[in-house]
Amino acid sequence: MSGLRHGYTNLTRRLPGARVEKRYQGLGRAERADREYACLVSLAQRVPVPDVVERDVAVPLLIIGEAPGTHGQDMIDAGRGAEVMRLLGSLLMDLQQVSPSTVPGLAGDGPVLVHGDFGPQNVLIEDNRITALVDWEFAHIGQPVEDLAWAEWIVRTHHPDAVDALPELLDASRLGIDWSARHRTMVARCEELMRMSEAARSGDTADLWRERLRATEQWNE
Asked: What's the pLDDT tens digit per position in 204-218?
């Protein structure tokens, strides 16, 4: 068994038999686990998500099937940013065609289903297609700009050399949302994550999000 390199918030490890175990950590872990389970089960025939193999409510944990492909961030690092952005934009367009009522019990107010942590950090890609969109624990009902803005924030923060590929994301999503709305949404999300870290009394993490918030506020298109 081995840990997965791109697992950050929770304990995620690879199991024998092409399976992945995800043990939820931190505040609200039971609710986040329930939310992700509901999304994976409800969306299985609508968007590319991994199969649920086993669930343990008490821990809580999920065991899911391991999807084939290369991690989106690894592909960006390999110089394939434009391809990744194009595929993300197309997937986001498809996702926003799914009725929010498809996933029972999701909270929020808005016209679309929001993944909540959308971007290259949560996709696997093979043969010019996304084979899995993972990590649905922050899914909710909200606004079309949210997932688009967060994918852009991930690129600007973690892959600055790929910023020139962002038009591929924007064009493929067909959302036509301007910079001011995207930037405002990025700032609001950073503020939210900073507050969550403060509530969890995670000083180092709160400081990190405070720094990221300041940096995000200074961005120009």
From this structure: 999 999 999 999 999
